[in-house]
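tokens incoming
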């Protein structure tokens, strides 16, 4: 049978689904997620223009890994909360729910102490010490602004450090919820995570992705997942489909090589999936071209691609908590050094 004009081409994922093959919709964060990120950041730092910052983030990721290994029992959502989120088609681990457990602040202070012990004297270590002494109210305000995507009043210098603590906290939440479900599963009990009404945001916490990843493995090669910027979960999203407007027309791929006129752009490890319909893009990293790719690390190391796409008028759909931009006039002052003060 020949294709007629307008006949949609199916992606490999759609073909697999129609053929009855099973694809895992959700991949929860592995225990070594931060260790893998640190290793990739160190690999990418070699000879990179952002070498110092990438190496700093590698140190931060290693400290995140060390903190994640410490057993901390968190307050987990109830069966009623899980059911309510599922019935509403919403993610379970919203900012309000995740921040209600004050142990995230204990984790941040522990993280900053571990980080400061590894840093030389300088602004980064000073900021880490300031966050250790900051009031609960200040930390809560900064966390809320970060999770809500608000730049007004956000301390951009401290934001990556606060974000690092939030990432550890949300990874713990996702892992502990899934472990409890597997341990205490009863017939008819709802799983804590499932599909939500918005497929472009994380089904676990509702955050935007940092990037997407084309994976290899037992399920096949080239299967695309979006990678959460907060809890590091990955959820299946078919290729050649805009992650912002969900359209399938006018999709193109750009890379640094392609934008510079080099023919190797089609085989680039990092590409931007661009949508002519809505003017947004999201990067995709290809594991079949480099098995060591890590969505957040490779996104950070390809900042030049973002700058070039911004010059062409495209807007980024992805969100990376380790690299935020904003008006300096809207930055908050230094953390309040008086614990408990408003």
């Amino acid at each position: 049978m020949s294709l007629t004009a307008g006949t949609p081409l199916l992606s490999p994922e759609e073909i697999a689904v129609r053929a009855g093959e099973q694809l895992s919709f959700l991949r929860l964060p592995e225990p070594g997620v931060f260790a893998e990120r640190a290793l990739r950041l160190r690999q990418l730092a070699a000879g990179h223009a952002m070498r110092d910052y990438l190496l700093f983030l590698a140190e931060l990721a290693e400290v995140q890994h060390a903190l994640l290994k410490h057993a901390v029992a968190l307050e987990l959502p109830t069966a009623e909360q899980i059911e309510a989120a599922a019935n509403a088609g919403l993610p379970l681990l919203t900012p309000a729910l995740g921040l209600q457990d004050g142990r995230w602040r204990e984790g941040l202070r522990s993280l900053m102490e571990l980080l400061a012990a590894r840093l030389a004297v300088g602004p980064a270590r000073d900021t880490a010490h300031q966050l250790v002494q900051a009031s609960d109210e200040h930390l809560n305000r900064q966390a809320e602004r970060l999770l809500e995507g608000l730049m007004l009043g956000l301390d951009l210098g401290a934001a990556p450090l606060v974000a690092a603590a939030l990432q550890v906290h949300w990874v713990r939440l996702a892992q502990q919820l899934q472990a409890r479900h597997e341990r205490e599963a009863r017939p008819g009990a709802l799983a804590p995570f499932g599909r939500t009404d918005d497929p472009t945001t994380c089904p676990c916490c509702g955050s935007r992705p940092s990037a997407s990843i084309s994976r290899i493995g037992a399920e096949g090669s080239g299967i695309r997942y979006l990678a959460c910027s907060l809890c590091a979960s990955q959820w299946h999203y078919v290729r050649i489909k805009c992650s912002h407007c969900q359209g399938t027309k006018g999709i193109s791929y750009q890379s640094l090589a392609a934008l510079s006129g080099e023919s190797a752009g089609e085989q680039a490890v990092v590409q931007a999936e661009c949508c002519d319909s809505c003017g947004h893009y999201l990067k995709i990293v290809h594991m079949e071209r480099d098995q060591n790719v890590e969505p957040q690390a490779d996104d950070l190391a390809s900042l030049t691609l973002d700058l070039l796409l911004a010059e062409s008028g495209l807007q980024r759909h992805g969100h990376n908590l380790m690299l935020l931009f904003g008006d300096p006039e809207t930055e908050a002052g230094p953390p309040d050094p008086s614990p408990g003060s408003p």
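note: The first strand starts at residue 26 and ends at 27.
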